[in-house]
Amino acid sequence: MSDEKQQASFQIEKIYVKDLSLEIPNAPQVFMEQAQPQLEVQINTEGAQFAEGHYEVSVSATVTAKAGERTIFLAEVVQSGIFSVRNVPAEELDPLLGIGCPTILFPYLREAISDLVVRGGFPPVLLAPVSFEGLYMQRLQQAQERQRQAPQQQGGGPQIELAR
Length: 164
Description:
With 164 residues, this protein is an alpha+beta fold.
């Protein structure tokens, strides 16, 4: 075994739109309305290894435009990427997949949402910048909270599953 430490590497292999959807349930009447719609935006991320040294990371956005209770449009995009990651320490891999990769994908997602909405006949929707570090930290805190609550909810001690 050599004393040389293998160098860490990170490379973008492919960026692609994995899923794309636009629904305009009340067309054509919505195009005649003058009401300013309220936008609701949800952003989610996920990532998983699918081959040795290769990870797929996805950032999804769902944009719902409503005027009162009436849905004007619903736009959904899943922007994905394949990333080659080698020799990255385990403690750095999760933040790389949860913060670094989504940050790379977000501009593509933002463009896809805007283009999709414009092609639907509406003014562009420009997603505000997202702190993927903040989302990542929030998910970590939620996971830690679930771990703390799980033993309390189930009797307080370690759980042993018995075969029946």
